[in-house]
Amino acid sequence: MKLSSYLSKLRLHNFFKSQPQAPFKFCLIVGLSFILLMLSVLPAGVSAEDFGPEIYYQDDNVTAELEPVMEESSPLVAARQLADIIGAELTWEESLEIVDLERDDFLVRLMMGSGYIQANDSTRLSPLEPKILDGTGYVPLMEVMSSFGYQISREIAGDEIESFQIYRPETELEEIFWAADGRQLVFDMDEITPYRVIETEEEGNITIEIDSAALAPDYVDNASDRNFNIRAREDEEENRVRVTISGPEELPYRRDGGVDELAGNLVVDFLPRLTDISWDEEEGISIKSNDHLPEPELQMLENPRRFVVDIPDMMNSSIDLEIEDNPYIENVRKSQFKNDPPTVRVVFDLKDEAHLSHERVEDEQKFVFQPVSRVESGRVHDLEILEDGFSFITDEDIEPEIFATGNPTRLVVSMFNTDPGENFPEEHYPEGEMISEIHTTIHESNTTRLVAEFEEKVGYNWSSEEIEEGGYLHRIEFADVLEKLDLSEQPGSFGFDIELSSEMSYEVKEYENPRRLAVDIPGLSEGEEEIELPEPKGFVEDIRMGRYDGEEGDTLRIVLELNEFYGYQVMSPEETDRISLALNRDVEDRQENLVVIDPGHGGFDPGAVASSGLEEKEVALAISKYMNELLQEEGYDVIMTRRGDQFLGLYERVEMANNSNASLFVSVHSNAAPRSAVSGLETYYAPGRKADSYDLARQLQSTMAAELPLTDRGVKEDNFTVIRDTEMPSVLLEIGFLSNPDDAELLEQDDFREKAAESAVTGIINYLEGSRNGVE
C-alpha cells in the first residue's frame, strides 16, 4: 500500500503541508514518521480483525475470506476470493491487467487502474478503481456485486458503518407495460414477493413497494405516456423496489383490489378511461372508452347553453378535444368531476338552439349523441294514478325514456320536447301500497321528468295509443317481468342467473332422457320474447323458454338441456328477485359446516391507515377473530387465512380456501377514500359470480347494514382476486372507511368490532340455512 494512501487515511498529509515546522512539534513529527514507516511494510490485505465493518453474503460472514481494504467508505476485496464465493469463473489477462468475472453467461470486466466496469454490453463508471495490492488483484465490492444483480445495504451505527449485507434479490422487475385492454399495468417479475400500497405525501399518486426485489439490469418502462408517469427505483438500504405512478391529476384508486396477481406478475387495475371524443357528420358526436361505459347522467343547462354528460366509474385521461367544425357544438371540455364514485364530466358547449339526444348503440364502449332540432314543446298532462300503475297524456306521439333505479326504488320517465300542463302536479302522494310519491321536474331545458318512488322493487310494461280527444295516452302498468338471463363460467362450476323485476316464488325440477333442469316461475307477465337467451357453453347444450298452465296458473318455464354434470345447487332463497343456480362440473365434496375467514392485508402490508395511525390489517384481524369465535359457538368449523400479523399473497389465500373445500369464503377489510367525508359499509362479489355469490353478498350487506351505525353503500361488483378465483361462494366486506374520522373512531372500539362480527355471522348463517342442494 502506498505511503500517501495511509497519509490520506490518517488525515495527516494536509496537516504536514499546511502547518509550520515549529521546533516544539519535532518530537511529534518523528514519532508519526516512524509509525508511517512501519505501516508501509504491512501486507496489503488487512486482516478481518483490523477491517472495521463485517461483510455478509446471503447471511454468511465472509469478511476473512475477502481480505477487504476500505477506501472512501467502500470496500475493495480480493478478486479471486470473491469469484470463489459467488461461483464465478475468474480470468486474468496479465498483459492488459484485465480481470474477467463470468457467471451464467454474464460477464463483468475490469481493468486495473480504470474506473470503468463493463457488464455484458453496458459500461459504467465506478468511484473506486480496481488495483493490485501486494501482488493481489482487488476489485470494488459494491460495483461488482450490483453488476451481477445483487443488492448491498449498509448497517450504520452513529457515523460508523458496522456491516455490509449482500443479498441476491428474490425477484427482479424486468418491465412495466400496459395489458392489451389498457386497464391493467403489468409488472413483469421473476416471482411475486411481499408488496404493499403505501401512503405518500404526493396526493393523487400511487406508490407500490416490492420487498426483496431489484430492478433488472435491462429494466424497461414501456408504460409511461401522456396519462401516466411511472418511476421505478431501488431502495438498496431496505432491499426493495419502489414504483410510483402519477398522472396529470389525482388518480382515482382503491387500496383493496387495486393490486392483483396474475401469472407470477403484479398487476395494477385501473378504472376505464376515455380514449376519444369526435364528431362525424352522419353519426354525430361520439365518446369512446377502453372498456364498458356505464349509463350516464345527462343534463341540459342554459346560460350558457350546454349539454352535460356525467359518466360514473370512470377516470379522467388526456385526449385530444379538438373536434371538427360543425353547426351544433362550439367546444368540448372534461374533468374528473367526482371521486366517489369516480365520475368524469364531459361538457358540450352548444351553438344557438342545438340539442343532443343519446342514441343507443351496440358497442358497449361507445356513446353516441345526435343533434336534434328543437321544436316547439308539446304538453304532458292529466297524470292519473291507476290500481296497477299510472297514466298521462302527451300532445305529440313520443316514446319516453324509462329506466328503473334501486336504493331507493324509483321509476324514471323522461319526455323530450315537453312541458308540464294541467293536472300534472310537481308533487303527488297517492294512496295505496305501491307508489309512495310522484314528483315531476323540468330536468333539462325542454325535457319533463317524472319520478315515481316505490316501497319495493317493481317491474313495468309501457304502452301508448292515440285517443279520440286528441293526443296520446301512455300507460305504465306494474307487472312482474323477466329482466335478464345469464350463464357464466365460474371456478369449478357454471352459474345460471335469472333476474326478475320483483321477488317471486319458483321451483327447480330435474328430468332425465335427456338430462335437463327446469325453472318454473308462475305469475310472470308476458314479454319474455324480448329477453336475449345466453349462448350455451360447457355442459349446457341448450337454453329455451316456454309457457304452460300449471297448478298456480300461467307459468314461465326456463329449461337447461345438459350433458354430463354432477349436480346443482340452488343458491337463492325460496322467494327472490334473482334466482341463482350453481351447476357443478366436478364431484362436489364441500364441507357444509366449514367457513373460511380471510383477514385482509397483514405483516409488511398495513392496508389503509387512519389519521390516528390505526391500520386496516389490525381491524380486519380483530373482527375476523370475533367471527371465528362466534361461528365455532354455533357449531361451524372455521379456517382463518392468517391468525397473526403476517403477509400473505392473494393466491396464497385463494389456494388455502380452495384446498379446504369450504362452503363459503368471506374476506374482511376496511376501506379508504381520497375524501374524508366518504363513509359506510359495502359488500362485493366478483363479476360472473352472481349465481353463487350475489345472494351471500346481499344477505351479509342487509344484515350488517341493519345492525351497524354505518351508511349502507349497497352490494357492488368488482374483480378482487380473492373472490374471483375462490371455488366457493365468496364475498369481500368493506366495513367502514378509515379515511373518515367517525368511521375510524368506531373501528377502533372493541364493542363495534364485536357487533360487526355478530352481524356478519348472522348473515353467514342465514345464507347457509337458506341455500338448498340439488339432487346429485
UniProtKB/TrEMBL annotation:
<feature type="domain" description="MurNAc-LAA">
    <location>
        <begin position="654"/>
        <end position="765"/>
    </location>
</feature>
<dbReference type="InterPro" id="IPR036582">
    <property type="entry name" value="Mao_N_sf"/>
</dbReference>
<dbReference type="GO" id="GO:0009253">
    <property type="term" value="P:peptidoglycan catabolic process"/>
</dbReference>
<dbReference type="Pfam" id="PF07833">
    <property type="entry name" value="Cu_amine_oxidN1"/>
</dbReference>
<dbReference type="Pfam" id="PF11741">
    <property type="entry name" value="AMIN"/>
</dbReference>
<dbReference type="InterPro" id="IPR002508">
    <property type="entry name" value="MurNAc-LAA_cat"/>
</dbReference>
<keyword id="KW-0378">Hydrolase</keyword>
<dbReference type="GO" id="GO:0030288">
    <property type="term" value="C:outer membrane-bounded periplasmic space"/>
</dbReference>
<dbReference type="InterPro" id="IPR050695">
    <property type="entry name" value="N-acetylmuramoyl_amidase_3"/>
</dbReference>
<dbReference type="InterPro" id="IPR021731">
    <property type="entry name" value="AMIN_dom"/>
</dbReference>
<dbReference type="GO" id="GO:0008745">
    <property type="term" value="F:N-acetylmuramoyl-L-alanine amidase activity"/>
</dbReference>
<dbReference type="Pfam" id="PF01520">
    <property type="entry name" value="Amidase_3"/>
</dbReference>
<protein>
    <submittedName>
        <fullName>N-acetylmuramoyl-L-alanine amidase</fullName>
    </submittedName>
</protein>
<dbReference type="InterPro" id="IPR012854">
    <property type="entry name" value="Cu_amine_oxidase-like_N"/>
</dbReference>
